Amino acid sequence: MIKSKKALVCGAGGFIGTHLVKKLKDEGYWVRGVDLKLPEFSKSLADDFQIRDLREFGDCATSLTLKESHEAGFDEVYQLAADMGGLGFIHSAPCEILHNNSLINIHMIDAAIREFKIPRYFFSSSVCIYRDMKHGEPELDEAGAYPAMPDNEYGWEKLFSERMAMAYGRKYGTTVRIARFQNCYGPEGAWIGGKEKAPAAICRKIASLDGNEGNIDIWGKGDAVRSYTFIDDMTDGIFRLMHSNLEDGVNIGCPQYVSVLDLVNTVARVAGKHVNVIQTPGPVGVESRNFSNARIYSTGWKSNYPLEEGIKRTYPWIKQQVEIAKKAEIPM
Predict the structure, then answer these.
(1) pLDDT tens-place string over residues 48-95
(2) Which of 30, 44, 107, 110 is nearest to 76 (CA)?
(3) If you write DSSP's letter for every residue of 243-283 in order, what string do you get?
(4) 185-227+256-290+304-327: which CATH architecture?
(5) DSSP E strands: which ranges in the chain?
């Protein structure tokens, strides 16, 4: 009998981590999830879930320890744990982001690679490591991360942690795979509270309107350009990258680039509502993002969900959350 592979998913209580656990279970893995919290919207499918603070080396080491000492250890570690959120959070909490995320990655990389000699290690980085781009600029490939000039501290921390993971991999012989995520969205993601990203925030605002028309506010003019990747595409990309021969950072994202106003119009169309946009002061981030996905395409991966198809799968779930919150008289 062939034993299933064993994987540790760090950040398994978060949005992408919750969906990644499901993906790994579908692939036949035995999975342990670790996080500061359980998933908020559904029961974790992990075989074992531990509440751990991965800012502490001891908790990282305990997470990597299997009770059945006679068995081999974990085959793979997926490190997605991070203190992060949408643009508002990134710009309002730079110290917390640098402090918490640096500690998580310093300790988990050291424990998993040096202490436990894990064969394969995945690190979730971000396209926030790249510089500001202009509208219409040619696509950047992964080498475009250097010379480094991230727009925010979240990007600087991610870039440092990429370098650390690669250095440990070279020294201790661990296969390290690094994904640079573009914006990810879908059901069961944060939709309120300040850590939600743009697709969820726009869905919430439009779902909250009484009737079929109304006003919603956005930060800035709405001309900032982004790519939004549906969660099923993202977890498929993570899995393919982990088992590929692609070294260094690899971009994973939907090749469809839209402005914030395009996003608003897409959500409104799916919701069947007419929306007027009110511009308000707030962080807007970089002007544009436009990245080559050629390397991840080499694994056979492709984005199966253009924005409107992904919103069709996301908006009904957020609308349901809004209705629940209204009945419970929860402020939104």
Answers:
(1) 999 999 999 999 999 999 876 445 589 999 999 999 888 888 889 999
(2) 30
(3) TS---SEEEE--S-EEEHHHHHHHHHHHHT-EEEEEEE---
(4) Alpha-Beta Complex (3.90)
(5) 6-10, 30-35, 48-51, 76-79, 120-126, 175-181, 183-185, 213-219, 225-230, 249-252, 257-259, 274-280
Please name which of 265, 256, 270, 262 lies closest in space to residue 314, comparing C-alpha atoms: 270
Tokens (6 digits) for 202 = 């726009």
pLDDT digits (tens, 9 = 90+) for 243-295: 999 999 999 999 999 999 999 999 999 999 999 999 998 888 888 888 999 99
Give the span between the Cα atoms of 276 and 80, in whole angstroms. Answer: 37
Q: Is 0.85 surpassed by the pTM of this model?
A: yes
Q: Residue written as tokens 């995320």? A: 101
Q: Which CATH number fits domain 6-183+231-252: 3.20.20.80, 3.30.420.40, 3.40.630.30, 3.40.50.720?
A: 3.40.50.720
**Cα–Cα distance, 157 to 223 (Å, whole number):** 27
Both tokens assigned to 138: 């040619």
Query: 175-181 and 120-126: which strand pairing?
Result: parallel
- Burial tier of 261 (Cβ tally within 10 Å: 0-12, 13-18, 19+): middle
Give the count of alpha carbons within 13 A of 240, CB side only.
18
- The amino acid that residue 207 corresponds to is A
Active site residues: 154
Exposed (0-12), middle (13-18) or buried (19+): which is 9, by Cβ within 10 Å? buried
Q: What's the token pair of residue 159?
A: 């870039």
CA distances from residue 79 to 64, 113, 129, 149, 228 in whole angstroms, order as listed: 12, 12, 17, 24, 21
The structure tokens listed for 126 are: 């971000």
Kindly report the length of the chain.
332
pLDDT (tens digit, 9 = 90+) per residue, 145-166?
Answer: 999 999 899 999 999 999 999 9
Residue-wise over 160-175: b if at least 16 C-beta within 10 A, else e? bbbebbbebbeebebe
